[in-house]
Amino acid sequence: MEFEPFVVADAARAGCAERIGMAKLAKMAFDGIDLRPLWAELIRKLLDGTADAGEGLDLSLIAQLLGDKQTGLAIQHEVLLSHQLYRSPCVSHNPRLRVLALAAATDMGSNTPIEFLLEDSGIELTILYVIPEAELPVPLPEHDIAIVIASDSEDCRDALRKIDAAVARWPRPLLNPPALVGSLDRDKLHRLLWDIEGLTIPATLVVTRDRLADVAEKAEALTDIAADLAFPVIVRPRGSHAGSGLARIDAADGMAHYLEGREEELFFISRFVDYSNEDGLFRKYRVVFVDGRPFACHMAIADRWDIWYLNAGMSASIEKRREEETFMRTFDIGFGRRHQAALAAIYDRIGLDYFIIDCAETRDGSLLIFEADNTAVVHNMDPSVVFPYKPPQMRNIFSAFAAMLERRAGLAREQAA
User: Fold this and answer.
1) pLDDT band at 398 (very low <50, low <70, confident <90, very high)
2) Looking at residues 379-391, what average pLDDT do you find?
3) 195 by DSSP, 3-state: which?
4) C-alpha count within 13 angstroms, C-beta hemisphere, residue 364
5) Angle between helix 186-193 and 340-350 (nearest 10)
6) Which of 51, 215, 315, 373 places its Cα 20 to 30 Å from the Cα of 343?
7) What is the structure's pLDDT at 95?
8) Taking a C-beta distance cutoff of 8 angstroms, is the pair 403, 214 a contact?
């Protein structure tokens, strides 16, 4: 059966709402600005019926930034029922490129924070939320190139299915196609990457609460989950982000204690890999892939295994920052060269135009993969006084991302000519 391709229409005629957006609001929160006055102003407008759709979506984000995820998602749900198309601020009145980002109705951590990548680029960004209650708009808003920013989380699956059904007749280049985004969940990623030479990625298995309760009764029940599974293990709720619910369990009684504090029914479990260096510290790296090329994003150093950048105390230690600076400045001849073959194989297997890996190095020199996704935050919010080496590196990443978009859109125009 043949389908007519989608057509596109000017975004203004398609009812595109303006908003403050993720990048600006997150930067305000990151800088310690109190968002509660803005929350109070927007909630007043929402309650008296004068808030527009963009203000409603900003209000949803502010609620999440203030720690009230449930309220934020409830507001977002109501707003998106009536309006799905939003434009983020652009520094140019005559943008050199128009990008359409395809998002899911989910929390702020489950769509690619693309606004950070395009800030100050002169590229216009329009975000279309693909929701269960509505089909893709006909005609589509005008754009030169589209990119899927929804993740492989459970609440994005419907959006990915709808986009995937339309891929074959999409009128412009479409990056990060949903079929490839769907391979990034932790259990799927192991099946995709496990046999790459020079790479370590422990099998991550989905287990029910009842299976973990069995382990809490007797440690031998771990082998019922996987023959080679033994304490210590890593457990986290399925679908969790940023270390929420993440724990290392060393014995059966520890599993019992863990379950007492959790309400979820599905979890991920994997074996623990000790990736500490000889100095006893753990080093975790974030690497960004843009059109196949890896870039250093950040390096976190701590005396704890459950490390991410915000708990590593990087701003308090000049020694740690010097090491991170060296990682960034020498990436192409250091870390990137040491793992060149593994990084290239990762890109070939995953195949996305833009994605991120969080990783480490084991003592035997292999590349240890924690996760890969298309939604990790890549930003330039850190104060340049403390991290003077970061802004140039972030600008390199942002420039590479913008160049990829322009190159792909240009190729499509040439082929159509």
Assistant:
1) very high
2) 96
3) coil
4) 8
5) 120
6) 315
7) 87
8) no
- Token pair for 142: 């005008």
Q: Give backbone dihedrals phi and psi of 327, rounded to 5 degrees, phi first.
A: -55, -45
Residue type at 305? W
Percent of the chain residues topping a pLDDT of 90: 82
Q: Which helix (H) or strand (E) holds 59?
A: helix 53-65
Question: Residue 260: CA atoms inside 13 Å, Cβ hemisphere, count?
Answer: 7
**Residue in the structure block whose two tokens are 């504090």:** 261
For residues 376 and 111, what is the distance between their CA atoms, to the nearest angstrom?
Answer: 9
Could you tell me which residues are beta bridge partners of residue 369?
A: 359
Q: Are 346 and 372 in contact (CB under 8 A)?
A: yes
Q: Nearest CA to 178 among 376, 22, 374, 407?
A: 374
Q: How far apart are CA 143 and CA 135, in angstroms?
A: 18
Summarised one tens digit per residue, pLDDT across range 60-100 is 999 999 999 999 999 999 999 999 999 987 766 788 899 99
Residue 113 CB neighbour total at 10 angstroms: 18
> Are residues 140 and 100 in contact, defined by beta-carbon separation less than 8 angstroms?
yes
d(CA 300, CA 394): 16
- Judged by average pLDDT, the poorest of 25-34, 187-196, 239-248, 391-400 is 239-248
Distance CA 184, CA 374 (A): 8
State the Cα–Cα distance between residues 98 and 12, nearest whole angstrom: 13
- How many Cα neighbours within 13 Å face the side chain of 283? 19
Query: Closest Cα to residue 374, out of 348, 390, 353, 388?
Result: 353
Of residues 171, 130, 117, the one with CA closest to residue 416:
171
DSSP string, 100-143: EEEEESS-TTSB--HHHHHTTSSEEEEEEEE-TTSPPPSSEEP-
Contact indicator for 65, 76 with CB cutoff of 8 Å: no
User: What does the block give as tokens for 331?
Assistant: 């990436």
Task: Compute the distance between CA of residue 220 and CA of residue 396 in angstroms, rounded to an integer.
Answer: 50
pTM over 0.70: yes
- Contact indicator for 114, 128 with CB cutoff of 8 Å: no
Pairing of strands 247-249, 233-237: antiparallel
The answer to whether 9 and 142 are in contact (CB under 8 A) is yes
Place of tokens 């140039």: 392
